[in-house]
Amino acid sequence: MDQKLLAESILNQIDLNAQEKELFFSFVKLKKVKKKQVLLLEGDVSRYALFVVSGCLRSYCVDENGSPYIQQFAPEGWWIGDMYSLITGKPGHLVVDAIFDSEIAMIAKVDLNRLYKEIPQLNIYFRILAENALVYYQSRAMENLRLTARERYERFCTRYPSLIACLPQKQVAAYIGVTPEFLSKMLNQ
Questions:
Q1: Is the pTM of this model over 0.85?
Q2: In CATH, what number does 4-146 get?
Q3: Which residues, listed in sequence order, are joined to residue 61 by a DSSP beta bridge?
Q4: Cα-Cα-Cα-Cα dihedral of 50, 55, 60, 65, to 10°?
Q5: Scanning 4, 68, 85, 101, which has the fewest C-beta atoms within 10 Å of its C-beta?
């Protein structure tokens, strides 16, 4: 598996010398995951930050009726996980699984904490990721409160243009907060 995409993601934000890059990647574990493979269950403590090298992951919670509510899709080049659990060390609320066969890069939280001390620039990179995640989740919350289903669908298309053609409608419906039947009717109007 290629670490090039992760290196590009990091180097687009910060500068690392060859020794720092080598140290960082010595802690990165690469893993292939199959479609529908679960990486994190609700109630688990998240111990890894996950970067999608190829494929697509999603994070979601399930309501009392068994209906999923997708919080995030993570196509190639995106980070994903249960930030609450990763940061607090407490059991999480999200499930993370693979929508397609995927390749991921994983870095353990304990290793990240060590690397923050040894490579201070990584603090900046992961702070930028955390800030972007905060903006994303705040935007999602406001969209769910203020926008119509059609407007939420349009935002989905803008946010995830590479996924529009390849995701099943039930996945898109779970992301925008409607039933698959409602989404189908809405798109056919």
A1: yes
A2: 2.60.120.10
A3: 69
A4: -150
A5: 4
